[in-house]
Write a structure and sequence with these properties.
10 helices, alpha/beta, globular, Rossmann fold, about 300 residues
């Protein structure tokens, strides 16, 4: 269960730790990256460094955003750590009757959808992200005295990971012991029950896809829940040239619900000309990191 350091890389002003561990939740070996900013290395350490979890999208590993998101520069600027988990369990043996098309990159490995499946025992990414991984990081002797992985933390995500980030954040508003100070998402799948990615995933992972899917749909959570008394801090950015804009992301659907329910604290920006790639993400990373830095108490 302990974290193993596979590699340490000097980058920007801090260090990137490439880590691995055996997951009891996912029943296998998992890898992740953790960036500690230059503040982590100082000898005069007075307060725990806050953290931001970044949840990646379909087909990604911890390395995609680590290498192409350029969050580390912002981490040094403001003084937060960054956790880059994997997107699913790996080396899973799927049964021949599970209905998995090996050519379908939107299901299976690299496509865990940050949920707890009641069909596939390895696919418990919901519990992994919300419980096992934060507890493991917080207890590790390398980090425990310097980084706050449990309380003063925020969450970000892209695409499938944006959906996950929104779900974890919205559900944390009713759980003071599993809180996030803020959430942001790049091109998130905001209404998964209404699009092929979500519909297919819920059918693949759940015995009752309609019921379970509704619990994992940020748009429906906002529509059916009571958030008028909540202190919400959410920033969403999507590009209108995203090839998935109309058929998978459905950004307008969440905008409509926010207006209908008069929900405060959620800012949705549709940026002209931007696609779904890390060119898009890296462009708006500074804005998102500044947003989180304010909510984490690092700047005014």
């Amino acid at each position: 269960m302990s974290l193993q350091i596979e590699k340490t890389i000097a980058v920007c002003g801090g260090k990137l730790f490439k880590l691995s561990h055996e997951s009891s939740v996912l029943k296998g070996k998992m890898v992740l990256n953790v960036y500690v900013p230059k503040q982590f290395l100082t000898t005069e350490f007075k307060k725990k460094i806050p953290s931001i979890y970044f949840l990646s999208g379909l087909t990604c590993t911890p390395d995609n955003c680590t290498e192409k998101g350029f969050i580390q520069i912002q981490a040094d600027k403001y003084g937060f750590a960054v956790v880059y988990p994997d997107t699913s369990p790996r080396n899973v043996k799927f049964s021949s009757d599970c209905g998995l098309d090996p050519e379908d990159w939107s299901l299976g490995e690299g496509a865990g959808f940050y949920l707890n499946s009641d069909i596939l025992e390895n696919f418990q990414m919901g519990s992994y992200i919300s419980e096992e991984l934060p507890q493991l990081l917080a207890a590790d002797k390398l980090f425990q005295e310097k980084i706050d992985f449990l309380q003063n933390r925020s969450i970000m995500g892209h695409s499938m990971g944006g959906m996950g980030a929104l779900n974890f954040y919205l559900k944390s508003l009713n759980n003071s012991e599993n809180t996030y100070m803020s959430c942001s998402a790049f091109a998130p799948v905001v209404n998964p029950t209404a699009v092929p990615w979500g519909q297919n995933a819920f059918k693949f992972y759940f015995k009752d896809p309609e019921t379970e899917g509704r619990k994992l749909d940020p748009t429906l959570l906002l529509k059916n829940g009571e958030f008028s008394d909540k202190d919400i801090n959410v920033l969403i950015t999507t590009g209108d040239a995203d090839p998935f804009f109309d058929n998978q992301l459905k950004t307008q659907n969440i905008i409509d619900v926010i207006k209908e329910k008069k929900i405060q604290g959620i800012d949705v920006n549709i940026e002209s000309g931007y696609d779904h790639s890390y060119f898009f993400i890296s462009t708006f990373v500074p804005e998102h990191c500044e947003y989180h830095a304010k909510k984490l108490g690092l700047i005014n």
